[in-house]
Design a protein that fits this description.
- The chain is an alpha+beta fold and 419 residues long.
- It has 11 helices and 17 strands.
- A 5-stranded mixed sheet has the order 3-2-1-4-8, sandwiched between helices. Strands 11-10-9-12-13 form a 5-stranded mixed sheet, with no helix packed on it. Strands 14-15-17-16 form a 4-stranded antiparallel sheet.
- Helix 7 packs parallel to helix 8.
Length: 419
């Protein structure tokens, strides 16, 4: 998925050109860049342009500069989302220089009540005006991320120098927060730089100035790469008043996940792996179906062979089981042998299961259906007779003046089956 990552300016209302970067992989959590080379194959294009001239992309990510944010660590109260904003105002009121009602707040990713979390704060009017300008220009902002965020607990502080020769900022990121001061001797005194690890990073416009002030070499990082790194943060400052309805958020998130999955270069191996897995499954299912179909065809051929061998006069096989049944019935009729469909076996089955005290006034038999008139049974006796006849392959039904019994192939397996 192609993402447009834009750095917000400091003016109000926003004006001038916006630094931007186009990246194929700006999803939260991705780390594709080689830290030693500073290169990122996912970076497609970068530069600066007026808001109306910014390129179009599937996702728009806005980056808030570090000097526009303040960071505060609190124990998150256990309140519902509707009361969270008021609770944060009460907790942070004494720490803030501005009126809490004029600020916008955002909680750290995965913040849970009762735990220590970071809260980011910035001027609400400035942020809202900037986002409205994007909307007016036809750029629907999907995420709002900080340029830098506090590091996980136990991390070694990292220094960044950003901006230009007229406005250079020194940013210290650590597990105790993010501190941003104008680059100069005063910043070196105010910030604890003894524990910073590795080379500080600096944007090209302030690299020489950073080396002069810091007295050490710096690693040059292009502004566009810093934007991509910021977009890969798990933070999203679009919370509380900037949050859409639950349905809209879910739909937008689902669309972003799908676009990221279908278009991300980093996830190309996963897509290929899933495609291969589905292909293997499809091949396996077809192979199993072919095997089962072959076995069924073999069974059918065996039945047809049995029919033609047993009854050589059968020249055309359409329904082998039915034709064999009819042929056996015809053979039985020709030889005078009895079957379960004849009167004598049916009467014998009834006699074996009928109470001796019950009498039948009349017996009828036609088309393999036995009718017993005048037979009156109690519910218990009727149920016992029905089950017994079903076990021997007959279905029975009690009528107004007697019983009707006939052969039923399913009766032997399904219990008391009535016609």
């Amino acid at each position: 998925m192609l993402s447009l990552i834009v750095a917000l300016g400091s003016s109000k209302p926003p004006e001038g050109e916006y630094p931007f970067a186009l990246s194929r992989d700006a999803a939260p959590g991705l780390q594709l860049r080689d830290e030693g080379s500073g290169a990122d194959d996912a970076l497609v294009e970068h530069g600066s342009a007026l808001l109306a001239l910014l390129p179009r992309a599937a996702e728009v990510v806005v980056v808030v500069p570090s000097h526009r944010l303040s960071w505060h660590e609190i124990v998150l109260p256990r309140v519902n989302s509707a009361r969270m904003r008021s609770a944060l105002e009460g907790l942070l009121e004494e720490r803030l220089l501005d009126d809490p009602q004029t600020l916008h707040f955002a909680l750290a990713p995965g913040a849970a009540g009762g735990s220590r979390v970071w809260v980011a704060a910035c001027q609400r009017a400035w942020l809202y005006t900037a986002l409205q300008a994007f909307e007016a220009a036809g750029h629907r902002v999907a995420r709002v991320v900080p340029a830098y965020a506090p590091l996980p607990a136990g991390s070694t502080p990292i220094l960044h120098v950003v901006g230009n020769s007229d406005s250079a900022w020194l940013v210290r990121c650590a597990d105790d927060g993010v501190q941003t001061l104008p680059l100069g001797p005063a910043a070196l005194t105010a910030l604890n730089l003894d524990t910073a690890s590795g080379l500080p990073t600096a944007e090209p416009a302030v690299a020489a100035l950073a080396e002069e002030v810091l007295g050490s070499r710096v690693r040059v990082q292009h502004t566009a790469q810093g934007l991509v790194d910021a977009a890969r943060s798990g933070w999203d400052l679009a919370q509380f008043e900037l949050t859409s309805t639950t349905g809209t958020r879910a739909a937008r998130r689902a669309a972003q996940v799908w676009a990221q999955w279908s278009g991300s270069a980093a996830l190309r191996p996963a897509r290929w792996g899933l495609a291969m897995l589905l292909l293997i499954q499809l091949i396996g299912i077809n192979a199993w179906a072919w095997k089962e179909r072959s076995a069924l065809q073999a069974k059918r051929a065996e039945v047809r062979s049995l029919l033609t061998q047993t009854f050589p006069k059968t020249t055309l096989v359409v329904n082998a089981p039915l034709q064999m049944e009819r042929a056996v019935a015809a053979l039985r009729l020709a030889t005078g042998a009895m079957s379960s469909r004849d009167l004598e076996p049916m009467l014998a089955a009834v006699a074996q299961n009928l109470p001796m005290t019950r009498k039948v006034s009349a017996v009828g038999f036609a088309a393999n259906v036995l009718t017993l008139k005048g037979l009156q049974l109690s519910p218990t006796e009727a149920n016992a007779l029905t089950q017994a006849l079903a076990a021997t392959g007959y279905a029975s039904l009690e009528g107004g003046d007697g019983w009707t019994i006939k052969p039923d192939a399913k009766a032997g397996t399904s219990g008391a089956t009535q016609p």
